[in-house]
Amino acid sequence: MTSHLDSDAVRSAEWVRNHLDRFRTDDPDYRLVEVDMDPDVYDDWHIPGAVQIDWEEDIIDGLGGNVVAPSEAESLFGDLGITRDTTVVVYGDQANWFAGHAYWVLNYYQHDNIQLLDGGRRHWRLEGYEQTQGDVEYPSREYEIDGTNEDIRGYKEDIMDSLDGDRPIIDVRNPQEYRGEKPPAEIPNTTDREGHIPTAANVPWGKAVNADGTFKSESELREIYGEYIDPDRSTVAYCRIGERSSITWFVLSELLGVDAVNYDGSWTEWAADDAAPVEKATEPALKEGDF
Question: What are phi and psi of 261, to 5 degrees?
Fold first, then answer.
């Protein structure tokens, strides 16, 4: 069984549970990868066979649009026993915030076979599926990166150039951040300038998922994002450091088939540039309970 969504990019917890034997072997055909906001939760428990990526140490080279260099990504993926032909299923905490970004990075480096475990850690545990502890290691493999997929990445200069047009821009942060107030304690305070990119609409990333972390149905997602889909322009998703916006990008691009980019530099990069315009909202774009 796959997910309730008709997409090859997402796998249900049930499917992974039924195919754990594929992820527990040294064979590089399948690899299960956990990526969390808090890397220590992997030690508490993880899905049998899953290796770990530390998002801040392994996937980025500092905040603000700094994806890990190709040579470092080659070493990382190869050391995890991943080849260019491996089917990689990623999952994590926080309804896949950071796992979604790892998915996006793999896509950016043109890895073809990637899937996201619907609901991540939370849904897996709610279903009562098998958990384990201890590090997992597989034989290293050769991994080569040959170019990038620029169609899925947003850049500050391009977004600034399109502010006078009708390009859809989605700020996926919570209304507090969108209004320009100090971010909540759990959100890294990466800049002294707060607000949002002009013309951006506030649609918090959490609108796309159910209480158990799984994605909402396609019809529900189209209702949420329909007005931000333009057949002639790519939709921009951004947050503060590029991880929450990866979830919205995933919904738009991988579940709804929309031309979309993740602006991974996000608010951290934008606000650091004094030439980048900033707006503040005095009223919440959505009710506080909507994220």
Answer: -130, 150
Q: Is the dihedral angle over the CA atoms 185, 187, 189, 193 positive or is it negative? A: negative
pTM of the predicted structure, to 2 decimals: 0.93
pLDDT single digits (tens) 42-52: 999 999 999 99
* Catalytic residue flag (residue 95): no
Distance CA 277, CA 268 (A): 13
Please check whether residue 15 is in contact with residue 8, taking contact to mean a CB–CB distance below 8 angstroms: no
- Secondary structure letter of residue 163 according to DSSP: T
Non-local CB neighbours of 16 within 8 Å, separated by 6+ positions: 23, 32, 47, 89, 117, 124
The answer to whether 55 and 97 have CB atoms below 8 angstroms apart is no
Provide the pLDDT confidence category of residue 189 given band limits of 50, 70 and 90: confident
Residue 31 pairs in a beta bridge with: 88
- In angstroms, the CA 140 to CA 2 distance is 29
Return the half-sphere exposure (C-beta side, CA atoms, 13 A cut-off) of residue 241: 18
Residue 43's closest CA among 136, 127, 125, 137?
136
Fold of 151-290: Oxidized Rhodanese; domain 1 (3.40.250)
Are 10-148 and 151-290 the same fold in CATH? yes
Q: Are 129 and 71 in contact (CB under 8 A)?
A: no
Domain borders along the chain are: 10-148, 151-290
Catalytic-role residue among 239, 247, 252, 276:
239
- pLDDT, tens digit (0-9, with 9 covering 90-100), for 225-247: 999 999 899 999 999 999 999 99
Q: Which CATH architecture describes the domain 10-148?
A: 3-Layer(aba) Sandwich (3.40)
